[in-house]
Design brief:
The protein is of the alpha+beta class and about 400 residues long. About 35% of the residues lie in helices and about 30% in strands.
Length: about 400
């Protein structure tokens, strides 16, 4: 199961709040400092302190930068990050955040990305904040990022261009680019900064995932408020089975049988000029964004070139988002699409009690008839390790108790 985080933005999000929350949930401060020092810039310090704000204890992270005003272009920042000896995932995620920031600023100011000169977000403390958050995710082993709806606040805030309304135009442009949900919060100051919005727009899927929770952390902002000015981070492992089962519980009977509801859309494109790891990244992004299924097939293209067909089965209401991912993240010039009809079996989960311990079984039904069942791998593997018995023995034992009605303890 992939490691995930959920940003619970009940009081918004900023770069320092996100960094503090990741430290609070377990990212090593010493390891963060060591990796940030690989950036070819000096004159900064990372401080983190435990604080109590009202009913909550958490971490306040602060970047102290000694440089004065410094304006950097996107090319400057890309060069800085790419030249650091950082994990490739950290480099890619960090550059993606700054690229979205540049695109948002360009839309707001009616300029091209190449003309954009970062002011606040090009300053050293903002660079360390953003790269620090991405490093924190990497240190925690996070593969997928999720986020809640976002409160924005109201009023006015100062910027390098003068007073601007809250939410800042760049913040709104970033959230709009990601189709992010926002809440009706009229708190009279800025709750979500452009840096915080960029982190979520670049990395997050906006829903609460089914997960097995391991730890919770709180990152405090600089401003003192009547309510806790904190970002809460949930750290855990994605539970795909919970996700699948919830999806089926939410469907109507007609949708479960495949005879009703909007038909999903099949998207396809052929690629013959991208490395395998980039193809893998695309499929990951599609799944994170809500694709029902994603698969790749080796193909032979014109002039005998080996290629790969990327196919994604997606909900109709997410089609535009998925097409955008394929066009932005691959070298393709076009995407094929067609609506497809499908039949879907009903599924449910029961728990059986066996001499080796409790285990879940997934049951498959068609038109009300039970036509198949299979033990859940994670449960069986756990029992096999704990008991020191072969996995096949566990499978046989669990299936042997399927018909024992008295052993069913829950769904």
């Amino acid at each position: 199961m992939p490691r995930v985080v959920y940003f619970d933005c009940f009081s918004g999000i900023s770069g320092d709040m996100a960094l503090g929350a990741l430290i609070d949930v377990g990212a090593s401060l010493d390891a963060l400092r060591a990796m940030l020092q690989r950036l070819d810039v000096g004159g900064w310090e990372l401080h983190a302190s435990r604080e109590v704000r009202g009913p909550l204890a958490g971490t306040r992270a602060r970047i102290v930068a000694l440089e004065g005003h410094h304006c950097r272009t996107l090319t400057d920042i890309r060069t800085l990050i790419s030249g650091a000896s950082l994990p490739s995932a950290v480099v890619e995620r960090s550059i993606r955040i700054f690229t979205l920031l540049a695109e948002a600023e360009a839309r707001v100011h009616g300029m091209t990305v190449e003309q954009i000169h970062f002011h606040e977000v090009g300053a050293l403390d903002a660079i360390v904040d953003i790269v620090g958050v991405v490093i924190g995710l990497d240190l925690l082993g996070v593969e997928q990022v999720f986020a809640s709806p976002i409160p924005l606040g109201a009023g006015w805030v100062r910027s390098a261009h003068g007073p601007i309304p809250v939410p800042a135009p760049a913040t709104l442009a970033l959230l709009a680019s990601a189709g992010a949900p926002v809440t009706a919060d009229e708190t009279p100051f800025e709750l979500t900064t452009p840096t915080g919005a960029a982190i979520l727009a670049a990395l997050a899927t906006f829903r609460r995932p089914p997960m097995r929770l391991h730890a919770v952390g709180y990152g405090f902002g600089a401003r003192r408020m009547e309510r806790p000015n904190a970002l809460r981070v949930w750290l855990g492992d994605m539970d795909d089975e919970m996700d699948d089962d919830q999806g089926y519980r939410d469907q109507t009977p007609a949708e479960r049988s495949g005879s009703g509801g909007s038909s999903p859309v099949l998207l396809e494109t052929n690629i013959d000029d991208q490395p395998a790891e980039q193809i893998a990244y695309v499929t990951e992004r599609l799944r994170e964004a809500g694709a029902l299924d994603v698969w790749c097939t080796p193909i032979m293209m014109k002039k005998g070139r080996a290629g790969v067909l990327i196919a994604a089965l997606v909900p109709a209401d997410l089609e535009d988002q998925m097409v955008t991912i394929l066009l932005r993240e691959t070298t393709t010039l076009g995407v094929r699409r067609r609506a497809v009809e499908r039949y879907v079996c009903e599924r449910d989960i029961i728990t059986v009690t066996t001499p080796l311990g409790p285990a879940r079984i997934k049951r498959k039904r068609w038109r009300g008839e039970l036509i198949g069942a299979a033990p859940e791998y994670e449960d069986c593997a756990r029992i096999a390790r704990e008991r020191g018995v072969p996995l096949t023995t566990v499978y046989q034992t669990v299936m042997g108790h399927l018909e024992d009605v008295s052993s069913v303890t829950g769904h």
